[in-house]
Amino acid sequence: MTTPDPDRAAAAQTFYSRWAGVYDRLARRAPGIRRLRRAAVARLDLSPGDTVVDVGCGTGANLLLLRDRVGPDGTVVGVDFAPGAVRRARALVAREGWTNVAVCRGDATRLPLDGADAVLATFLVGMLPDPAATVDGWLDGLDPSRIALLDLARSHRLPGRPLNPLFGVVVATTAPPGTRDHHDDPPARVLDRRVAGAHRTLLERCPSTSHGTRMGGFAYLSAGGR
Ligand SMILES: C[S@@+](CC[C@H](N)C(=O)[O-])C[C@H]1O[C@@H](n2cnc3c(N)ncnc32)[C@H](O)[C@@H]1O
After folding, report:
1. How far apart are CA 87 and CA 79, in angstroms?
2. Residue of the CA atom closest to atom 12 of ligand 1
3. Partners of 79 in the beta sheet?
4. To 5 degrees, how large is the angle CA 69–CA 216–CA 25?
5. pLDDT tens digits for 154-209?
6. Which residues have CB under 8 Å from 189's CB, separation 6+?
7. pLDDT single digits (tens) 28-38
8. How far is 145 from 94, CA to CA, in rounded Å?
9. Please, which residues have CB within 8 angstroms of residue 159's CB and are 6 or more apart in sequence?
């Protein structure tokens, strides 16, 4: 188990607060991103009236899709630890007038999930110090469990595999300081390990699961249900 490091967490919060505007554009407009988000949300198999938590919600790129699924009687809760990301997501909620969507500042590694029907985490687990333990904790709090994880990591198949060196450069240059500078391993390898740990935990713990890759093998989507 890795102990969370407050300095690195603070560095990541500052990074995502400072770059919230740029990140928001990327989160909504990067090629193929909407389709990936739609696929992840669909895997949760949400029903009208459900309560769903978007952990590490960032600037709120999943909120509309989740709200569409749970309907006006359902509840969407976004949680993020970066104040700048939370501000931006809250501004979106206020602009749209969504009364059943709330965005809270909180830590994904210490999350009370009582009353939640499902959890979504997109592009988050690669930033967590011990993703397997965190996903374990989420699953302990969810009954029955419905969870979807969407992440990027190096590709193990064609056509993506030959592009792994380029992917590694992008990860090394764009990773927030707290995830970039405390491992002897290259950041892409750290990312691979964290993503694999989180997804493996989900696949081992949930009674019914699905797993697949997209975007040339760079995007990993796993989901678990009852
Ligand atoms: C790459 S962004 C993804 C944002 C969003 N899920 C999306 O798909 O666009 C990662 C987000 O996770 C948040 N984050 C990282 N570690 C966190 C933690 N321990 N608790 C809460 N939020 C965290 C960051 O502040 C950042 O907004």
Report:
1. 11
2. 56
3. 55, 104
4. 55
5. 999 999 999 999 999 999 998 877 666 555 788 999 999 999 999 999 999 999 99
6. 154
7. 999 999 999 99
8. 30
9. 216, 217
CA of 56 to the centre of ligand 1 (A): 4
pLDDT of res. 4: 59
Mean pLDDT (the chain) is 92
Q: How many CB atoms lie within 10 A of CB 6?
A: 9
Facing residues of 53 across strands? Answer: 77, 119
* Three-class secondary structure of residue 110 per DSSP: coil
Residues with CB under 6 A from ligand 1: 12, 16, 27, 56-58, 61-62, 80-82, 85, 107-109, 122-124, 127-128
Name the 3-class secondary structure at 130: coil
- Per CATH, the homologous superfamily of domain 6-225 is Vaccinia Virus protein VP39 (3.40.50.150)
Q: Are strands 118-122 and 101-105 parallel, antiparallel or unpaired?
A: unpaired
Q: How far is CA 21 from CA 28, 151, 157, in A?
A: 11, 21, 33
One-letter identity of residue 30: A
